[in-house]
Amino acid sequence: MKNKTNIVKKKIKKIAFKIIKPFLPFILIIGLLFFAICSIIDAIFIQEVQTDNASMPEAQLEIKNKCIEKSEYLNTCHNFKDDESTNYLLDVDSRENDKEVQWSHLYAIMAFHNMTNNKPINESLLNEVSKSFESTFRYEKNVIKIETITKDDERK
Length: 156
Known about the structure:
Layout lengths: L1 H19 L3 H26 L8 H19 L2 E3 L2 E3 L16 H15 L5 H8 L6 E3 L11 H5 L1
Parallel strand pairs: 1-3
Antiparallel strand pairs: 1-2
Helix pairs in contact: 3-4, 3-5, 4-5
Protein backbone atom coordinates (compact mmCIF):
# COMPACT_ATOMS: atom_id res chain seq x y z
CA MET A 1 0.00 0.00 0.00
CA LYS A 2 2.84 2.38 0.87
CA ASN A 3 4.54 1.69 -2.46
CA LYS A 4 1.41 2.70 -4.35
CA THR A 5 1.07 5.96 -2.44
CA ASN A 6 4.77 6.74 -2.97
CA ILE A 7 4.44 6.05 -6.70
CA VAL A 8 1.33 8.24 -6.92
CA LYS A 9 3.10 11.07 -5.02
CA LYS A 10 6.10 10.89 -7.35
CA LYS A 11 3.86 11.00 -10.43
CA ILE A 12 1.96 14.00 -9.04
CA LYS A 13 5.26 15.80 -8.35
CA LYS A 14 6.46 15.10 -11.90
CA ILE A 15 3.21 16.36 -13.39
CA ALA A 16 3.25 19.48 -11.20
CA PHE A 17 6.86 20.24 -12.12
CA LYS A 18 6.09 19.77 -15.85
CA ILE A 19 3.19 22.22 -15.51
CA ILE A 20 5.19 24.82 -13.53
CA LYS A 21 8.45 24.48 -15.49
CA PRO A 22 7.48 26.77 -18.41
CA PHE A 23 6.34 29.47 -15.96
CA LEU A 24 9.49 29.50 -13.79
CA PRO A 25 11.10 32.45 -15.64
CA PHE A 26 7.90 34.49 -15.20
CA ILE A 27 7.68 33.58 -11.53
CA LEU A 28 11.31 34.62 -11.08
CA ILE A 29 10.76 37.92 -12.91
CA ILE A 30 7.64 38.69 -10.85
CA GLY A 31 9.56 37.91 -7.65
CA LEU A 32 12.39 40.22 -8.67
CA LEU A 33 9.94 42.99 -9.61
CA PHE A 34 8.22 42.61 -6.22
CA PHE A 35 11.61 42.92 -4.48
CA ALA A 36 12.48 46.00 -6.57
CA ILE A 37 9.14 47.67 -5.81
CA CYS A 38 9.57 46.97 -2.09
CA SER A 39 13.06 48.50 -2.23
CA ILE A 40 11.73 51.61 -3.99
CA ILE A 41 8.94 52.03 -1.43
CA ASP A 42 11.46 51.63 1.38
CA ALA A 43 13.73 54.26 -0.21
CA ILE A 44 10.79 56.66 -0.52
CA PHE A 45 9.91 56.21 3.16
CA ILE A 46 13.52 56.79 4.19
CA GLN A 47 13.80 59.88 2.00
CA GLU A 48 10.47 61.22 3.25
CA VAL A 49 11.38 60.70 6.89
CA GLN A 50 14.96 61.95 6.73
CA THR A 51 14.42 65.13 4.75
CA ASP A 52 15.60 68.46 6.07
CA ASN A 53 12.96 70.32 8.05
CA ALA A 54 13.34 73.46 5.91
CA SER A 55 11.82 71.78 2.85
CA MET A 56 8.86 70.31 4.74
CA PRO A 57 5.41 71.90 4.64
CA GLU A 58 4.17 73.23 7.98
CA ALA A 59 1.56 70.46 8.47
CA GLN A 60 4.10 67.72 7.77
CA LEU A 61 6.61 69.31 10.13
CA GLU A 62 3.95 69.43 12.83
CA ILE A 63 3.21 65.70 12.38
CA LYS A 64 6.95 64.93 12.48
CA ASN A 65 7.32 66.82 15.77
CA LYS A 66 4.30 65.00 17.22
CA CYS A 67 5.86 61.68 16.15
CA ILE A 68 9.09 62.66 17.92
CA GLU A 69 7.18 63.58 21.09
CA LYS A 70 5.14 60.37 20.96
CA SER A 71 8.22 58.18 20.46
CA GLU A 72 9.96 59.84 23.42
CA TYR A 73 6.83 59.24 25.50
CA LEU A 74 6.56 55.59 24.40
CA ASN A 75 10.18 54.96 25.36
CA THR A 76 9.66 56.20 28.92
CA CYS A 77 5.98 55.85 29.81
CA HIS A 78 5.90 52.29 31.18
CA ASN A 79 9.19 51.94 33.01
CA PHE A 80 9.17 50.76 36.59
CA LYS A 81 11.94 50.47 39.15
CA ASP A 82 10.85 48.31 42.09
CA ASP A 83 7.16 48.97 41.27
CA GLU A 84 7.72 52.76 41.17
CA SER A 85 7.25 54.58 37.91
CA THR A 86 10.39 56.13 36.41
CA ASN A 87 11.06 58.06 33.21
CA TYR A 88 14.49 56.57 32.61
CA LEU A 89 15.84 53.49 30.88
CA LEU A 90 18.01 51.83 33.49
CA ASP A 91 19.33 48.57 32.10
CA VAL A 92 23.06 48.25 32.78
CA ASP A 93 23.68 46.48 29.47
CA SER A 94 21.47 48.97 27.53
CA ARG A 95 19.42 46.13 26.07
CA GLU A 96 16.30 48.27 25.97
CA ASN A 97 17.97 50.71 23.54
CA ASP A 98 17.38 48.18 20.76
CA LYS A 99 13.69 48.22 21.61
CA GLU A 100 13.28 51.98 21.59
CA VAL A 101 10.63 53.34 19.26
CA GLN A 102 12.00 55.79 16.69
CA TRP A 103 9.80 58.58 15.40
CA SER A 104 10.47 57.39 11.85
CA HIS A 105 8.82 54.04 12.64
CA LEU A 106 5.61 55.79 13.62
CA TYR A 107 5.72 58.12 10.62
CA ALA A 108 6.37 55.31 8.13
CA ILE A 109 3.47 53.22 9.47
CA MET A 110 1.20 56.26 9.33
CA ALA A 111 2.22 56.82 5.70
CA PHE A 112 1.50 53.14 4.99
CA HIS A 113 -1.98 53.47 6.55
CA ASN A 114 -2.51 56.56 4.41
CA MET A 115 -1.58 54.71 1.22
CA THR A 116 -3.51 51.50 1.92
CA ASN A 117 -6.58 52.68 3.83
CA ASN A 118 -6.63 56.31 2.65
CA LYS A 119 -6.58 57.49 6.29
CA PRO A 120 -5.48 61.09 6.80
CA ILE A 121 -2.13 61.50 8.52
CA ASN A 122 -3.07 63.29 11.71
CA GLU A 123 -2.82 63.03 15.48
CA SER A 124 -5.65 60.49 15.81
CA LEU A 125 -3.86 58.12 13.40
CA LEU A 126 -0.65 58.70 15.37
CA ASN A 127 -2.41 57.70 18.59
CA GLU A 128 -3.90 54.64 16.89
CA VAL A 129 -0.52 53.51 15.54
CA SER A 130 1.36 54.22 18.77
CA LYS A 131 -0.89 51.91 20.81
CA SER A 132 0.85 48.96 19.15
CA PHE A 133 4.26 50.19 20.33
CA GLU A 134 3.62 50.48 24.05
CA SER A 135 5.99 48.32 26.06
CA THR A 136 6.83 47.94 29.73
CA PHE A 137 10.26 47.67 31.32
CA ARG A 138 10.47 46.50 34.92
CA TYR A 139 13.73 46.85 36.79
CA GLU A 140 14.12 44.87 39.98
CA LYS A 141 16.91 45.11 42.49
CA ASN A 142 18.63 41.87 43.37
CA VAL A 143 20.72 41.49 46.47
CA ILE A 144 23.67 39.17 46.12
CA LYS A 145 24.95 37.76 49.37
CA ILE A 146 28.56 36.64 49.38
CA GLU A 147 29.88 34.50 52.19
CA THR A 148 33.52 33.75 52.67
CA ILE A 149 34.69 30.57 54.31
CA THR A 150 37.87 30.65 56.29
CA LYS A 151 40.04 27.68 57.18
CA ASP A 152 38.65 27.69 60.72
CA ASP A 153 35.11 27.35 59.34
CA GLU A 154 36.13 24.43 57.15
CA ARG A 155 37.52 22.52 60.13
CA LYS A 156 34.25 22.89 62.05
